[in-house]
């Protein structure tokens, strides 16, 4: 029994690990390209956070909540793995503190409020639209 539980945990870890590799690479490519285009790392982080929030909304709409069903594999791979390593709240926090340190208080506050509102809004809109378009239940 204990071996079976350990094997299940190990398979979950490997699924999340594989997804994390994909998400980390995607984060690097997207954030670096956006930052290079707009001249500051905060823009890349903002783009990753908003797109990640949108994707997690779509994932929640299509996959549903995590469970012991076969959808659990998709949740572990895509939500916990890919999007867990793709989104960048830790980078967001550090870059916001750097803006405060550089005495760019308005930019720091705009980054906080803008990121929060855009990410929550993107996730909510994506989730609702995905449910509607897939014929699922309404919010």
From TrEMBL:
Pfam families: CRCB. GO terms for biological process: cellular detoxification of fluoride. It is found in: Cell membrane. Na(+) is not transported, but it plays an essential structural role and its presence is essential for fluoride channel function. It comes from the Bacteria. Keywords: Cell inner membrane, Cell membrane, Ion channel, Ion transport, Membrane, Metal-binding, Sodium, Transmembrane, Transmembrane helix, Transport. GO terms for molecular function: fluoride channel activity; metal ion binding. InterPro entries: FluC. It catalyses: fluoride(in) = fluoride(out). It is a multi-pass membrane protein. The chain crosses the membrane at residues 12-30, 42-63, 75-97, 109-133. Na(+) binds at residues 84, 87. GO terms for cellular component: plasma membrane. Belongs to the fluoride channel Fluc/FEX (TC 1.A.43) family. Fluoride-specific ion channel. Important for reducing fluoride concentration in the cell, thus reducing its toxicity. This is Fluoride-specific ion channel FluC. It comes from Pelagibacterium lentulum. The lineage of its organism: Bacteria, Pseudomonadati, Pseudomonadota, Alphaproteobacteria, Hyphomicrobiales.
